[in-house]
Specification:
The complex is a heterodimer. Chain A contains 26 helices and 27 strands. By secondary structure, chain A is α+β, with helices and mostly antiparallel strands. The two termini of chain A are 120 Å apart. In chain B, a hairpin with a 2-residue loop joins strand 4 and strand 5. Chain B is globular and about 50 Å long. Classes of the chains: A alpha+beta, B mainly beta.
């Protein structure tokens, strides 16, 4: 039997329990029966003994009466009185015959035997009779039992009164088969009379048992200790008996006993029927128990098995179907719990799938779903030799709107955008999806590039209408990238990334819908590798520090230099900052570059200082650098290591850089200002600026962007701007530096306007830092400047 | 005792009176084994010298009344007649199986015809065949000088001529067949006394 299964365990437990109970009951009752039988036998024997004693007593009484009858007879008395021996003898014989005694005797007052009916046993019995006579003299009459010749006799002695006691009549009766038979008839016990012979062995005198058994009894009796009255188990023949031993004679010289026997089997016989019935009931009970326990176990475990199967179904994802267990008990509860669990799980799965594949905000499919659909569309297109195109769309300036008007507004905006898109796409096979953030994608199966461009144009047109939300009107613009299967990519991932590239190009170049082409990709490919190359460049020392000197316009004296970074790419050669600085700014790598520049500038500063040269070194900081709160600390560390003072430095920041996060920028600038480094606004006039902030900034210098300076000779507006800027700077107490000084004419103009310093190709192109000292030595300011300076 | 003719009695008394002028009397005290006075004991003196003794000439009566023999104990001289009148409402069957005198008076009432003569000395036990409890004792003695003790165990033998006697005492409670106790008695002119301690059964 398998003991791992619950069913077999329950069944076995039940079965064992009931078996145990049945067996215990059975054996208890068996024992009860046996004990009962034994007790009843004992009682029967005890009663039997009493009956036997009573029988003996009755016998004695009968004898006494009989003897008394004789003794009272006048004729007998007369015969005795007249000593008529013959008559006496006849009277005795008659009396003996009437009663059936074995022996009758007449004893006179002197204890002499005057007459007797038999001679053979006279001697033996006489003694006993004499004793009884003595007893009778005291008690009136007497009776007793005596053994003679291995036969026990019951003897009675009665007085002959004439009128006083003149003689005694004694009568003896054998305790023989007849008595035994009477006893047996009365009590259904076996009766055996045994006497001990001269050798000390018991011999059966009379018995209701067959001779052989009686002999066996006699043999067994030998082993019985004296005085033991009860014999619980006696085996005679092939039956068992219980026996009671009744002592007849008190004299141990010639003991005689009567053994009353009860067959144990006979006594138990009535119970046999009961035992059989009991056994039968036990067997039936066990059979029922077995069946019942099996059924119960089944009933318990079957539903569990069903539920286990159903659970497996769940595991396979099958959530349908009825759990067919309708019960009111714990198993019913379990199955109900299963059902509701199943429903809950199915529900959650639906939700999860929904979350996995749908964008919760706009209720559009998400990237995962879009990708799956795209893959299916590609497979379909491949099969049917068709095109399929995706449009990827990014909203312009969404981040700005989000920041300005809050995320709640931004979300509502996105929902509106989704609605607009949906309204534009009417074909059922076309799918819109929100890829995340402010990116959307549209799948157009069976569509070529030109068709896709038309769709894109339609969408962009729809965005020309501003969106109004909460009394706000937002102008929307987007960049759309188009990628088509199979020209622009062979699988979903390729199409997606190419569409994305096209989209970025669309955004940056202003073209609002751009189809992918391999050339676009190159630059993006380049971009991808650019970052790793930049990192490598730092490690491999591919950067060079270049400097561009700044001169006082009044005197032509070199008072400072701007530190610039150049990249000498092992393959591409010199890479200009415009190629990698914007990218570095986007990726945050700019901070590494800035640090590098600061480091090298400090080294240069120290170097120049040792040569007795102390120009102010200007280093460009980017937005990211401004937002880096550790910058002042790093700066201080660099200064400390190179043992240069912060006042040798001027840090240049663009307007836009400040405006991105004015508060934090201000914090950093304040810190730098307190370190006594100078600060300059770079490219002034070209970016966003707030004059309010400007007046709060701890700035020392203003640098006019070269775009104004370079054309100021020819462009009057530019000149006006330059002039205004110089005035503004001076009015605010700032030094003004002009970038892009390319000829003497501009120098003169600037000097005339009062600009403080100039920087440009005319003075010098940026040069490797190590060449500066040499250049400076060779530098001579132009004559007019020198002259102006001499004159001023 | 039936009234005897007055004249005979007078004569007898005077004879006795003459006799007593020459005779002595003996007072006897009888006790049992425990020393208690024994009533109904027969006390009698048998002369040793073989002198002639007067013959009895009286008749005794032992009546049956109330299913009892009255008196219980009688002492008579050998040769006395005893009659057994039945004064009871029922009939009695008087018998004796004592060897001294075996006789029976079958079922009668009133007075039987003849009295019974007891010629031999000895003890006779009387019984009634119908009533087992009826018993009487007659102790027949060979001397005219006998008496029965009273409740105090005393008896007086009178009119004994001086001489030597064997004084005997008997009680029915003595074992059956036992002899009477005896002691010698020498009597002179004066009265004597004696005592017996009898080994009775109770």
């Amino acid at each position: 039997m398998q003991f791992r299964s619950l069913q077999s365990r329950i069944a076995t437990l039940f079965l064992l329990l009931i078996l145990a109970i049945q067996l215990v009951g059975f054996f208890a009752i068996q024992k009860g029966i046996h004990d009962n039988a034994r007790k009843s036998i004992q009682e029967e024997l005890t009663i039997g003994e009493r009956v036997f004693q009573r029988l003996l007593e009755q016998n004695a009484q009968k004898l006494t009466q009989g003897a008394g009858l004789l003794a009272a007879d006048y004729g007998f008395k007369e015969a005795f009185g007249t000593n008529d021996q013959e008559t006496i003898g006849d009277a005795l014989s008659t009396a003996r015959d009437r009663i059936g005694a074995a022996l009758t005797m007449l004893i006179d007052a002197e204890h002499r035997v005057r007459a007797t009916t038999t001679n053979s046993h006279t001697a033996g019995l006489e003694q006993a009779v004499m004793k009884l006579v003595e007893q009778a003299e005291r008690a009136g009459s007497a009776n007793g039992i005596s053994v003679d010749g291995n036969h026990p006799y019951q003897i009675v002695v009665v007085p002959v009164k004439a009128p006083i006691v003149v003689a005694w009549v004694a009568m003896a009766f054998p305790i023989d088969q007849r008595l035994a038979a009477d006893m047996r008839a009365l009590s259904s016990l076996h009766v055996s009379v045994l006497t001990k012979d001269d050798r000390g062995a018991w011999t059966p005198d009379a018995s209701t048992l067959p001779a052989a058994e009686a002999a066996s009894l006699a043999l067994q009796l030998k082993d019985v200790p004296e005085g033991m009255g009860f014999f619980p188990k006696l085996s005679i023949g092939d039956s068992d008996f219980s026996a009671r031993i009744v002592t007849l004679t008190k004299t141990s010289a010639k003991p005689a006993v009567v053994v009353l026997q009860r067959s144990i089997d006979e006594a138990i016989a009535p119970y046999r029927q009961l035992q059989v019935t009991l056994l039968f009931l036990t067997a039936v009970g066990i059979a029922f128990a077995a069946a019942g326990s099996f059924v119960t176990a089944r009933r318990i475990t079957e539903p569990l098995r069903q539920l286990a199967d159903i659970a497996k179904q769940f595991g396979r994802g099958e959530y349908r179907g009825q759990i067919g267990i309708k019960r009111a008990d714990e198993i019913g509860d379990l199955s109900q719990a299963f059902e509701s669990m199943r429903d809950d799980i199915a529900e959650r799965e639906r939700e999860i799938i929904h979350l996995a594949y749908w964008d919760t905000l706009t209720d559009l499919p998400n990237r995962a779903q879009f990708t799956n659909r795209l893959q299916d569309a590609i497979v379909h297109a491949q099969k049917h030799n068709e095109n399929c195109t995706i449009l990827m769309m990014d909203l312009d300036r969404f981040k700005a709107v989000n920041d300005a008007l809050g995320h709640g507004f931004g979300d509502a905006l996105l929902k509106q955008v989704a609605e607009r898109l949906k309204s534009q796409i009417c074909d059922e096979t076309d799918h819109i999806a929100r890829l995340g953030g402010d990116e959307f994608a549209i799948l157009l199966p069976n569509t070529g590039v030109d068709q896709a461009k038309a769709v894109a144009a339609r969408i962009l047109k729809s965005f020309e209408v501003p969106i109004s939300l909460d009394e706000q009107t937002i102008d929307l613009g987007a960049g759309i990238g188009i990628a088509c299967y199979p020209e622009h990519g062979a699988d979903a991932q390729a199409l997606l990334s190419h569409a994305e590239v096209a989209m970025y190009v669309a955004k940056t170049s202003g073209n609002e819908a751009v189809a992918y082409s391999a050339s676009i990709d190159k630059s993006s490919q380049n971009n991808l590798s650019l970052l790793s190359e930049l990192r490598r460049a730092v490690d491999r020392n591919e950067f060079r520090l270049y400097v561009q000197p700044k001169v006082l316009l009044a005197t032509g004296e070199v008072v400072g230099l701007e530190a610039l970074i150049r990249w000498v790419h092992p393959e591409r050669g010199m890479v200009f900052p415009d190629s990698f600085i914007p990218f570095a700014e986007q990726t945050g790598f700019i901070r590494m570059l800035t640090r590098w520049v600061l480091e090298r500038s400090a080294a240069l500063c120290a170097d120049l200082g040792r040569q007795g040269l102390f120009p102010k070194i200007s280093v460009n900081l980017s937005t990211r650098d401004l937002l880096d709160q550790d910058l002042p600390v790093k700066f201080a560390d660099i200064l400390a290591r190179h043992k240069v003072s912060s006042s040798s430095f001027c840090l240049e920041i663009t307007e836009s850089a400040i405006m991105d996060d004015p508060i934090r920028a201000l914090g950093t600038l304040e810190a730098l200002h307190e370190m006594h480094a100078e600060l300059a606004i770079d490219d002034f006039g070209t970016g966003y600026s707030s004059l309010a902030y400007l007046k709060r900034l701890p700035v020392d210098e203003l640098k006019i962007d070269k775009s104004f300076v370079m054309k100021m000779e020819s462009d009057a507006d530019d000149a006006k701007i330059v002039r205004s800027t110089i005035d503004l700077g001076h009015n605010m107490g700032l030094r003004v530096v002009a970038e892009g000084l390319e000829n003497t004419g501009i120098w003169h103009l600037l000097a005339e306007m009062g600009c403080d310093q100039g920087q440009g190709y005319f003075i010098s192109k940026p040069m490797p830092a190590e060449q500066f000292a040499g250049w400076l030595a060779a530098w001579t300011p132009p004559e007019f400047a020198a002259a102006a300076g001499a004159n001023a | 005792m039936r009234a005897v003719p007055i004249s005979a009695a007078l004569i007898f008394v005077s004879a006795l009176a003459i006799q007593s002028a020459l005779a002595a009397s003996v007072s006897v005290q009888v006790t049992n084994a425990a020393g208690q006075p024994l009533a109904d004991a027969a006390v009698y003196a048998e002369p040793l010298s073989g002198q002639a003794v007067p013959k009895p000439n009286k008749m005794l009566e032992i009546e049956q009344k109330g299913r009892k023999f009255l008196p219980l104990v009688s002492v008579v001289q050998a040769g006395t007649d005893i009659s057994f009148p039945n004064n009871d409402t029922v009939r009695h069957h008087v018998y004796s199986l004592s060897p001294t005198k075996v006789f029976e008076l079958k079922l009668y009432s009133g007075t039987p015809g003849k009295p019974v003569n007891f010629e031999k000395p000895g003890t006779v036990v009387l019984g009634c065949n119908i009533h087992d409890t009826m018993v009487a004792y007659i102790h027949i003695v060979n001397t005219p000088w006998f008496a029965k003790t009273d409740a105090a165990g005393r008896a007086k033998l009178e009119g004994l001529p001086p001489g030597k006697y064997q004084l005997k005492a008997w009680h029915f409670n003595l074992p059956l067949g036992a002899q009477a106790a005896e002691q010698p008695l020498s009597l002179a002119a004066d009265d004597g006394s004696a005592s017996f301690r009898l080994n009775t059964k109770n």
